[in-house]
Amino acid sequence: MSAAMTPVNKDIENLLRSHRLKRTSARMEILSLLLGSSHTISYNDISDALGDNFDKSTVYRTLNSFEEKGIIHAVNDGTGGIKYAVTREEGREAHVHFKCDNCSQTYCLPDTKIPNVKAPRGFVIKNSSLLINGTCKYCS
Amino acid sequence: MSAAMTPVNKDIENLLRSHRLKRTSARMEILSLLLGSSHTISYNDISDALGDNFDKSTVYRTLNSFEEKGIIHAVNDGTGGIKYAVTREEGREAHVHFKCDNCSQTYCLPDTKIPNVKAPRGFVIKNSSLLINGTCKYCS
DNA sequence: AATATAAATGCTACACAATTGCATTAATAA
DNA sequence: TTATTAATGCAATTGTGTAGCATTTATATT
Ligand SMILES: [Mn+2]
Ligand SMILES: [Mn+2]
Ligand SMILES: [Zn+2]
Ligand SMILES: [Zn+2]
């Protein structure tokens, strides 16, 4: 409570304030996890990392709030259960996600954009998501 | 039971026999639904169409059998719950799926192939799935 | 046609992800 | 400091899918 605030904490507070979200410890800790992760994380990852400090519904509601505000985005890698990652500048455009068959982590590839495809007559494209499976750079 | 067999039923029987699956009424009816559908269908679609003639586990197991044999393929359109479609000749290659925001049906686009993407160094691609959202040709 | 065998089915229970209503508590504004 | 509003915890509930096991059925064999 009285310890000097780390820059990271300041960043998180600003992020919350800029989206008009109250600064609660659940949000601070969950957002901190998300910001510090190189890959997408699930409810279970959060639950494991934070113990049972927060109720399941709080965690899910927190993730939903972040997503509504655009702070994070959801990734469905087909393993049942949604994963999330912070949306960084380069990743605002629709980017590819990569699921490693070996370590089963799912990564944002913010610089790998989804190519345009031409749908058949009558199909109007709004947006698209591309999931790649394979071996990630840490496993190959 | 004694009515003349329709050609469609013969097709279905042959399909089952060619994959060494026993001809049961669950399989006949579920495969008939799948063959007759222009879009992917879910467990719930099957359950609605067939009433409670078949147990939930039978339906799921039937779908899993069909998928293992390659008769159908699974599509995850992010709505929670897997959908299935018969794999037709043109669709054996990885093709795009289209989820309509209006009618919320999900379609195979067997002629729209998934473009190759170049992943960052170290990421080895095995396969990929591309889901497009928008308005389908029946809704536009 | 009767029988044997292996597979499919129905039932029940369970697993897991996620959501909801509601009373309580905490964060911010005034 | 108080009032207001939003967030939280808890318990129950929903939704999707799986699993064990006794029973039934499809098919091959006699
Ligand atoms: Mn991403
Ligand atoms: Mn398809
Ligand atoms: Zn990996
Ligand atoms: Zn439509």
UniProtKB/TrEMBL annotation, chains A, B:
Question: Recorded GO terms, molecular function?
Answer: DNA-binding transcription factor activity; transcription cis-regulatory region binding; zinc ion binding
**Any one Pfam family match given in the protein's UniProt record, by short name:** FUR
Source superkingdom: Bacteria
Could you tell me what the cofactor note in this record states?
Answer: Binds 1 zinc ion per subunit.
Which residues are noted in the entry as Zn(2+)-binding? 100, 103, 136, 139
InterPro entries noted in UniProt: FUR (IPR002481), Fur_C (IPR043135), WH-like_DNA-bd_sf (IPR036388), WH_DNA-bd_sf (IPR036390)
- Cofactor(s) required for function per UniProt: Zn(2+)
GO terms in the biological process aspect are: negative regulation of DNA-templated transcription; regulation of secondary metabolite biosynthetic process
Q: Give the UniProt keywords, A-Z.
A: DNA-binding, Metal-binding, Repressor, Transcription, Transcription regulation, Zinc
Membership in a protein family: Belongs to the Fur family.
Q: Which PANTHER family does this entry report, sorted A to Z? A: HYDROGEN PEROXIDE SENSITIVE REPRESSOR, ZINC UPTAKE REGULATION PROTEIN
Spell out the protein name for this chain.
Fur family transcriptional regulator, ferric uptake regulator
Source organism of the structure: Sinomicrobium oceani
